[in-house]
C-alpha cells in the first residue's frame, strides 16, 4: 500500500475500494495507508459491494445460461461467487457452527472458531447452506428476471443486515486477534445511513422496474428484521457479543432467508 494520500484526504472512492478489497478477492489499488478509522468508514459500503457482487454473479449467470442447462449455470455461478469472495462468509458460517456446536465455554468456542480445520458441525452446516442456495435459485430459475433479482437482493441485503449488527452488540474482547476487529468496533450514523440507503435504493429500483412486488418487498423487510433480532439473541447467548465469524454467518443466513422468502411468495 502507498501513502501518496494524506490520511485526512482519503476519498469516498478510496473507501469503496477498501471495502471491495476487504470483502472480495477483486484486485484493487489502495493508494493510502489503511488505518482503523478508514476500515470503520469503509463498512458503509458493504451493501454496495454486495450489489457489485450481485451484478457480477447475475452477469455470469446470464452467460452460463447461453451455454448450459439451468442447474449447471447455477452451480457455475455459485463457484464464481466463492472465487470472488474467497469463501469469506462461508468460512465464518462453518466456523460459527463448529464453535457453537463443539464448545461449552466462550473461550472454548472462540478457540474452535479460530482453528483452520473444518469440523463435523461446520462441514454439515456448509453442505446444507450451499444446497439450500442451489435449490432455491434453481426453483427461482424458472424466471430469468426472477433469479437475477434474487441474486441482487441476496448479495446486497444480506451484507446490509450483517453489517448493521455492529451497532447492536459488543465485540467479543477475547477475540483480540481477529482481522475484522479494527473494522467492526464502530459504525457511525452516517455509515449506517449509507448502508440502509443502498439497500433501499435497490428495493425501490426493482419495484419500479416491476421486478419485485411492493408486497414482496415488505415481506422481505419483515423477515430480515425478525432474523436480525434472532441473530442478536443467538450471538449474545453463545458469546456475549459477536466476532467476525458471526458477521459472516449472519450474511449467509440472511442470504438464504431472502431466497427462501422469494420462493415462498411465488
Automatic annotation (TrEMBL):
Pfam families: CobS (PF02654). GO terms for molecular function: adenosylcobinamide-GDP ribazoletransferase activity; cobalamin 5'-phosphate synthase activity. It catalyses: alpha-ribazole 5'-phosphate + adenosylcob(III)inamide-GDP = adenosylcob(III)alamin 5'-phosphate + GMP + H(+); alpha-ribazole + adenosylcob(III)inamide-GDP = adenosylcob(III)alamin + GMP + H(+). The chain crosses the membrane at residues 12-30, 42-61, 67-88, 118-138, 144-167, 187-207, 213-231. Its cofactor is Mg(2+). Its EC number is 2.7.8.26. The keyword Magnesium applies. Pathway: Cofactor biosynthesis; adenosylcobalamin biosynthesis; adenosylcobalamin from cob(II)yrinate a,c-diamide: step 7/7. It comes from the Bacteria. GO terms for cellular component: plasma membrane. It is an enzyme of class 2 (transferase). Keywords: Cell membrane, Cobalamin biosynthesis, Magnesium, Membrane, Transferase, Transmembrane, Transmembrane helix. GO terms for biological process: cobalamin biosynthetic process. InterPro entries: CobS. It is a multi-pass membrane protein. It is found in: Cell membrane. Joins adenosylcobinamide-GDP and alpha-ribazole to generate adenosylcobalamin (Ado-cobalamin). Also synthesizes adenosylcobalamin 5'-phosphate from adenosylcobinamide-GDP and alpha-ribazole 5'-phosphate. NCBIfam families: cobS, PRK00235.1-3. HAMAP family: CobS. Belongs to the CobS family. This is Adenosylcobinamide-GDP ribazoletransferase.
